[in-house]
Amino acid sequence: MGLFDSLFGKKMQCPSCGAEGAKQLGERILCPNPACPYFDVSLGRKGTSLPSRGNFSPVRPLDIRYKNFQGVDRRFTADASTAQRRKNHIVVQVTPTGERISLARERIQNLDEIEAALPERVERGQDWPTPRERQVLAYHKQHKTTSPLYEKVRAKYPDW
Ligand SMILES: [Zn+2]
C-alpha cells in the first residue's frame, strides 16, 4: 500500500467537491465522485455511471434532476433523510446501492425542492452553530460520547 501511495499520490479531499479519497497526480486531480468534474474512473469504479443494481431503499425518496459538468442531464433517486448541505454541495445517498454522492448545488435543476426536503437542522430563524459548536457536536456524535458542553450545545441544536 505504501508503494501504491507513493506512485499514485497522496489521498486527499477533492478541492472541487470535497469528496474523500481524491488524489493528486502532478497537476491533475482525480476524484472518486462521479458527479465531480475531476471524476476519474480509475478510482475504483468501472464505467462512468452509478452501479445499476443494489438494494438500497430510500426512507424518503427524492428525485434529483442534475446537469453534470458536461451538460448531461442526470436523474438520481436519493434518500432525503440522508441529505446534508456541505458548503456549495449537497451530499446524499442514492439508489440503487446507497452510495453517498456529492452534487454541486448550482447544477441541481430542482434545487428549491431539494433544499426544502433537507432535514431541518436548526430552528427557523435560529443561528447556525459556531464552528466550535459544530466540532463538539460532530465529535461526540461520531464517538458516541458526551460531555457537559456537548449536552448544552445539543440542547440548543437537538436536530443537528
Ligand atoms: Zn471531486
Question: Could you characterize what this model shows?
Answer:
The chain has 160 residues and is an alpha+beta fold. The protein folds into three domains: 1-48, no CATH class; 61-117, SH3 type barrels, CATH 2.30.30; 120-160, no CATH class. It is built from four helices and eight strands, in the order αββββββββααα. A three-stranded antiparallel beta sheet has the order 1-2-3, with no helix packed on it. A hairpin with a 5-residue loop joins strand 4 (61-67) and strand 5. The N and C termini lie far apart (37 Å). The model is unreliable at 1-7 (pLDDT under 50). Zinc ion is lined by residues 14, 16-17, 19, 22, 31, 33, 36, 38.
List the helices and strands and how they pair.
Layout: H1 2-8, E1 11-12, E2 22-25, E3 28-30, E4 61-67, E5 73-79, E6 84-86, E7 89-94, E8 99-104, H2 111-117, H3 131-143, H4 148-156
Antiparallel strand pairs: 1-2, 2-3, 4-5, 6-7, 7-8
Helix pairs in contact: 3-4
Bound molecules: zinc ion.
Beta content comes to 15-25%
Coarse structural class: alpha+beta
How far the N terminus sits from the C terminus, by CA atoms, comes to 37 Å
The residue ranges in which pLDDT falls below 50 over 5 or more consecutive positions are 1-7
